[in-house]
Amino acid sequence: MDAIKVDSVTRFYGEHTAVDDLSFTVNKGHIHGFLGPNGAGKTTTMKMIAGLLPAHRGQIQINSKPLEQNINELKLELGILLENPPLFQDMEVREYLDFVARLHKVPKDQIQKSVDYAIEKLRLGDVAQRLCGNLSKGFKQRVGIAQAIVHNPSIVILDEPTVGLDPQAVIEIREFIKELKEDHTLLLSSHLLHEVSLVCDEVTIINKGKLVVSGPVEEITNNFNKQAQIEVSAKSLSDEQIKKIENWFFIDKVILGNNDKEEVSFQLSLSSINDHRHECLKNLMDINVEVISYKQQKMSLEDLFIRMTKGAQ
To answer: For the domain bounded by 229-297, which CATH number is listed?
Structure first.
């Protein structure tokens, strides 16, 4: 069953289209990364999924139920941390989580158990009696995540959960997110692409409100690596040969590296989404480039993000 289904959703702000006919699916029990440059429409989309903003066109389903028609029921299935932790500075951590549990209609006889669960999951035992306003930024973020899970929702939405944290706090939040997968489906937006690659099973990339790509991280990177970059070493490479290579329809550009008397290295940046590795090698031989080595350079999620969002502009 799909945990979240965004189907042809559009959202306007005046004449500006913030989200444009966007569709993607978050599978149950997965951590789904939601990526895009600043202004891409990530926060607007997450607010619509959370029921905080209406979509002007299209439909959002939560656990296979239309959000708009079942919004009060489905909001209880969602745990949300958007932008900044919504903490009450003068409340103690346990008191605050108790308050949030009651807001989410946790039965009275289950509240203590629910609060204990959130405190244990986020390792908040040592600060449970401290005022939220006196916590470090890292602990405030932990409490922010704790309030998103205190009512044991099936889906947790986290918008930039590691923004502004020191490296140690980022590592801790990453580990907490991995552990939350045991009991929840997570939709996670972040600019820390390395962090996303370490914790997410799936990823959706958007740019200017439009979908760029969506699917399993490994599948997307493997498919895109077929047309990424090829590293070549040859005995020589003339200007005439470079011009011929740049005229191949699947070549974006030729990037020259080391060039000495015995060997020249260069990189072929491919522009096509198809796999042209064998065709490329054959073409090099046809124009008398004496190839010494020939290998594909794999792309990281960050390389993929930069290339795809640049191409979608």
So the answer is: 3.30.70.260
* Exposed / middle / buried, residue 220 (Cβ in 10 Å: 0-12, 13-18, 19+): buried
The per-residue pLDDT for range 20-34, each reduced to its tens digit, is 999 999 999 999 999
Cα distances from 4 to residues 143, 145, 151, 163, 260, in angstroms, run 25, 19, 19, 24, 55
- E strands of the chain, at which residues? 2-13, 16-27, 31-35, 57-62, 65-66, 78-81, 155-159, 185-189, 202-207, 210-216, 229-234, 251-259, 264-270, 291-297
Query: pTM score > 0.90 for this model?
Result: no
Write the pLDDT tens digit of every residue in 257-281: 887 778 999 988 776 656 777 888 9
**Sign of torsion, CA 304 277 253 268?**
positive
Q: In the block, which residue shows the tokens 């552990």?
A: 179
Q: What angle do CA 44, 50, 51 make, to 5 degrees?
A: 90
The SS3 assignment for 50 reads coil
* Contacts with 1 (C-beta within 8 Å, 6 or more apart), sequence order: 28, 63, 64
CA-atom Rg of the chain in angstroms: 24
Handedness of CA 65, 71, 72, 75 (dihedral sign): positive
DSSP code of residue 92: B
Q: What is the DSSP letter of 90?
A: T
CATH code for the structural domain at 2-214: 3.40.50.300
Domain parsing of the chain, residue ranges: 2-214, 229-297
